[in-house]
Write a structure and sequence with these properties.
globular, 16 helices, 4-stranded antiparallel sheet, single chain, binds 2-acetamido-2-deoxy-beta-D-glucopyranose, Alkaline Phosphatase, subunit A, alpha/beta, Gyrase A, domain 2
């Protein structure tokens, strides 16, 4: 991790920032440059994740495309050059960071494929021993081979006892705190979101009501190539443009009655380019042509959204937020190597009930009392499995991950490999995310609107700050976000 967050450093960069920024105490400073966000909030926020895009990629892109749409956005925007997504950095916790203002210990959302000690298998009617795999991806669709998969099949959902009654756990039920989508929708305003699986039902939040419109073509039905993924992402882009006409594409879940106050979604093309082609192995790791093609597509798509906002005379009253759910590791292709994930479980020397592996391994043991023994065995064999750190016990809790003895969603052990190591038997990927390295976590994060003065903000920020920023930009109290309140997450510098 780099420099820790410092209000002093921020104040040095931003004339409008104040060391007194906090709950309900922001906005006053903004009057100095004639823009009082609190009194004149934005009417709309558009929030996009360029999945896989690092903070360093923003700089690399600007260097090769100095006249790009992203460059134009930054001419009146704040670029946060040291922004971190959650640990772990899987898409699910990465999205929840932005939309709840909180990390996995608070959201309960650790990964899109994980174990929960008090859930039961799908279709079991909460019988059998407690503890179940919880996978919220294409697996819960009616038919994931279809772009329009039919949505979530309840028969495939894990179950849990709620007040003694067995209930199916939809993705949105799995989330423990509310989302910005729920807060905005609860005000009678319209919200619309697009992502890669119907499982992104999770953004609706625990009430299940956070979206006016969900748009979830199934990415699994699409070839794992940059070209096919760009074609897929275009569906999302077209939906965003339609929403600005109060229209919804076919297969949308829900409908709009007005232009959405809050809308957005993700891009997958960069992530697929990173995993299949990646960066060049030369100094500075420039983009390969395939990766540049993916960034150019994203840039043109953002340009199309801006053009549409201008055509609708909404550009000045809209805040555009671009923040990645996750990065991708390693950036340097020379660091990449694969290790059979079963090696990790074997090295523990104890019974492992569940293991989630990517460029991280999350271990749930059959008997949590074995934790210290398993961790000692892993440390003793660290070199063989290219392990950088083993996080467990008091350290796990002290590092902000929660306590596995008290929380059924917290793993017993987090294994962090050396950067570039992927615990997988897949032949396809040359990079991965989900882990806790800087390459996984240091993500693109910038905001833009015609009324903002260009600023490069070097202070460390977290993408959990995106949620409070969006609510405050719309004139709402960020404390309405339960996760942000619980973790004390503030808006990004420039917005408090
Ligand atoms: C599920 O279990 C409950 C008792 O826990 C029982 O009343 C109910 O009939 C069961 N449902 C099914 C479909 O087996
Ligand atoms: C899923 O869709 C494919 C393509 O239409 C079809 O061949 C397959 O039988 C379907 N599977 C199920 C389980 O309905
Ligand atoms: C910006 O976006 C527009 C609209 O998609 C696109 O036509 C243009 O090529 C993009 N790039 C630049 C440099 O304007
Ligand atoms: C781990 O142990 C299992 C069961 O003995 C074995 O099948 C597997 O090959 C082992 N994995 C490695 C990487 O040695
Ligand atoms: C550990 O838990 C798994 C999953 O519940 C089970 O299949 C396995 O038999 C257990 N192993 C031991 C040694 O108890
Ligand atoms: C906690 O982590 C630190 C740094 O990795 C290490 O020095 C220390 O020994 C760990 N403590 C425990 C109890 O594992
Ligand atoms: C939008 O805002 C910019 C910068 O504040 C200003 O120059 C421009 O006139 C505004 N345009 C409209 C249509 O209000
Ligand atoms: C970002 O999160 C880390 C914990 O992961 C925390 O120590 C730090 O204070 C946070 N920074 C801000 C600005 O909230």
């Amino acid at each position: 991790m780099r420099s820790s967050y410092s209000l002093v450093a921020v104040a040095g960069v931003l004339s409008t920032a104040s060391a007194h920024g906090g709950w309900g105490n922001w906005g006053k400073e903004q009057e100095q440059d004639g823009r009082n966000v609190k009194q004149n909030p934005y009417k709309h926020v558009a929030v996009f994740s360029v999945d896989g895009m690092h903070g360093s990629d923003v700089e690399k892109y600007l260097a090769v495309r100095p006249n790009s749409n992203i460059s134009q956005l930054l001419q009146h925007g704040y670029e946060y050059t040291d922004a971190y997504t959650t640990a772990p950095s899987d898409s699910f916790p990465g999205s929840m960071a932005q939309f709840t203002g909180a990390t996995p210990k608070t959201t309960g959302v650790w990964y899109d494929d994980i174990w929960v000690r008090d859930y039961y298998d799908a279709g079991s009617n909460c019988t059998g021993p407690p503890g179940a795999e919880v996978q919220y991806a294409e697996n819960i669709d009616y038919n994931s081979t279809l772009l329009w998969s039919g949505g979530i099949d309840p028969a495939s959902l894990p179950e849990t006892l709620v007040n003694g009654k067995c209930q199916k756990v939809y993705p949105h039920n799995h989330l423990r705190v509310n989302t910005i989508w729920e807060v905005v929708h609860s005000k009678g305003l319209q919200t619309a979101y697009a992502d890669k699986h119907p499982a992104y039902d999770i953004v609706r939040g625990p009430s299940g009501t956070g979206l006016s419109v969900g748009y979830f073509p199934e990415i699994q039905s699409v070839d794992n190539t940059v070209a096919a993924t760009i074609a897929y992402d275009r569906l999302h882009v077209n939906a965003w443009l339609d929403w600005l006409d109060v229209a919804t594409p076919e297969h949308s879940e829900g409908a709009l009655s007005a232009i959405p106050t809050l809308f957005g979604g993700n891009f997958q093309a960069v992530s697929v380019a990173q995993k299949t082609v990646g960066y060049q192995a030369t100094a500075g790791n420039p983009f390969t042509p395939a990766l540049l093609q993916a960034f150019d597509f994203v840039d043109a798509s953002l340009g199309a959204v801006v053009a549409k906002l201008k055509a609708k005379n909404l550009y000045n009253s809209t805040l555009i937020v671009v923040a990645s759910k996750h990065g991708q590791a390693a950036i340097d292709p020379k660091l990449y190597a694969k290790i059979d994930p079963t090696l990790i479980a074997n090295l523990t020397g104890v019974a492992v009930e569940w293991q989630t592996s990517d460029d991280i391994a999350l271990l749930f043991l059959n008997n949590s009392a074995d934790t210290a023994k398993a961790a000692a065995n892993l440390k003793a064999n660290a070199a063989q499995a290219h392990i950088r750190s083993v996080i467990y016990g008091a350290n796990l809790t002290a590092s902000g991950f929660g306590d596995p003895a008290k929380d059924p969603a917290v793993p017993d052990i987090i294994v962090q490999p050396e950067n570039g190591i992927i615990y997988t038997t897949s032949k396809a990927k040359i990079a991965e995310h989900g882990g806790i390295s800087d390459d996984d976590r240091e993500v693109a994060c910038f905001v833009s609107s015609p009324g903002l003065k260009a600023q490069k903000i070097a202070a460390r920020v977290n993408t959990t700050q995106v949620g409070p920023t969006i609510l405050q930009a719309l004139g709402f109290d960020a404390a309405e976000l339960q996760g942000a309140k619980s973790e004390g997450t503030k808006a990004l510098p420039g917005f408090y």
